[in-house]
Amino acid sequence: MSVFGQKEVWFITGSQHLYGPKVLEQVAKDSEQIVAGFNASAEVGMNVVCKPTVKSPEEIHAVCQAANVEPNCVGVVLWMHTFSPAKMWIAGLNELKKPFMHLHTQFNAELPWADIDMNYMNTHQSAHGCREFGFIGTRMRKERKVVVGHWANQDVQTQIDDWCRAAAGWNESQNLKVARFGDNMRQVAVTEGDKVAAQIQFGYEVHAYGLGELSEVVNSVSDADVNAQIDLYNNDYVISTETLKDEYKLKMLQNEARLELGMEKFLVEGGFGAFTNCFENLAGLTGLPGLATQRLMSKGYGYGGEGDWKTSAMVRIMKVMAAGREGGTSFMEDYTYNFGAKDQVLGAHMLEVCPSIAAEKPVLDVHLHTIGMRCDVARLLFSGKAGPAINVSPIDMGNRFRIIVNEVEAVTPPADTPKLPVASALWEPKPNLSIAAAAWIHAGGAHHTAYSQAVTTDNIADYAEMAGVELTVIDEETRIRQFKNELRQNAAYYALSQGI
């Protein structure tokens, strides 16, 4: 069952008229059975649509053009059941704008040793049909995912699902709008960047708004709607009786309810999937949105603090990729270290960590916020779940973009933090903090990240390939000398790939 609504990938099988109607009829039946298997599988979360077998340059060109203009099609899976002469694919691949996967499989898993004949060989010749198609992809310098193995294998279906999720993220990237309330934090470098270049590279738009435009919508929220929202908070979170009975604290909850409803109305009416704000620019608001931002993220919106529109967009894109998977995705910041037997990072932010990563039901409380605007703000308090995760940082290198991934292992904190008034997550970076932090710094990674326990490194790798940007991964195998050499080689490659 699809977890991506009406979004779909097209399954297109290549052949040719040479084989005659009987073989082509079998090719079509086999393709339909493969697609039915994908759609029945718990491993594949995207709806797969079987398209008619393409047998000529005209049919290939037409289906590629159709994929380009179909808004629900996020990508195509191409498979050569028989031999499909690859010059037939040149015009179509030249025009194809959607990402494509080359699935190198065959219909039957095992050979019928006692019955195999040349008719069987001609019908089931993906082994060399896909090599012919692979050549033209390489000759045309086309970036694509290649998945090899029998289509019914769980590992193959998992790889297909990973790619489909990246394609859904890329589709979101192409259509995403980010609302930027106020400007970047003053004098901060890494959250800046070229928004025009980002729109050209990734597709998403960044729109700036003054705080007056937002506060007008926030102030229009009715008291009745605010009170109804407080009832939701009481259902969703642990709130002490003292907080609900305290007139002042209740007022702070009402502030957040009004901010949440107002911001959500602004985002919905503007067609935005992500937003940023900054604690240095809050004119007209009761304070820096805390609970409001956390709840909006939990509904699927991307967020970046201090005007960080690149991370905001990445959080939203990764939330789309993660649809239907266990584990959350959140805006995050490497905040402070725990040097000990195994060095650790405590990730947090001033207020805005998404409750989708919480280990237990969050506690809703009111605490003093002291940066930018000194005031009491309601926020959710929790510690993140233990388990594998990734931190992702998209940065602007000036002449290009780079996406950095660090694989980490989130752990349960060894002790409570009763005086820490923010949500947090504790993790051990791979291969260790010493190498991971040095590599991150060499790569220019930001202090802000998109943190996820639902999205994998492979998902981000596929997305980066679709976007045509550099990806650098810090994982168990990372060593600093090799990593620095990789950065140097990447710099040369991406400089040359842009041409003169």
Please describe what this structure looks like.
By secondary structure, this protein is of the alpha/beta class. It folds into two domains: 8-174, Rossmann fold (3-Layer(aba) Sandwich), CATH 3.40.50.10940; 176-497, no CATH class. Helices cover 41% and strands 22% of the residues. The protein is built from 16 helices and 18 strands. The chain has helices at 20-40, 57-69, 90-95, 118-123, 126-139, 154-175, 195-202, 211-219, 223-236, 241-245, 247-270, 291-298, 309-321, 433-443, 457-467, 480-497; strands at residues 8-14, 47-50, 73-80, 100-104, 145-148, 177-181, 205-209, 274-276, 302-304, 329-338, 344-348, 363-369, 375-381, 387-396, 401-411, 424-429, 448-452, 470-474. Strand 14 (387-396) and strand 15 form a beta hairpin. The chain is elongated and about 85 Å long. The mean pLDDT is 96.
Question: What does this entry show, briefly?
Answer:
With 500 residues, this protein is α/β, with parallel strands linked by helices. It has 16 helices and 18 strands.
Number of strands: 18
Number of domains: 2
Structural category = alpha/beta
Largest sheet: 6 strands, antiparallel, barrel
Overall body shape:
elongated
* Averaged pLDDT: 96
The total count of helices amounts to 16
Head-to-tail CA distance between termini: 47 Å
Low-confidence stretches: none
Measured by DSSP, the beta-strand proportion falls in: 15-25%
**Cα-atom radius of gyration:** 25 Å
Assign a percent range to the helix content: 40-55%
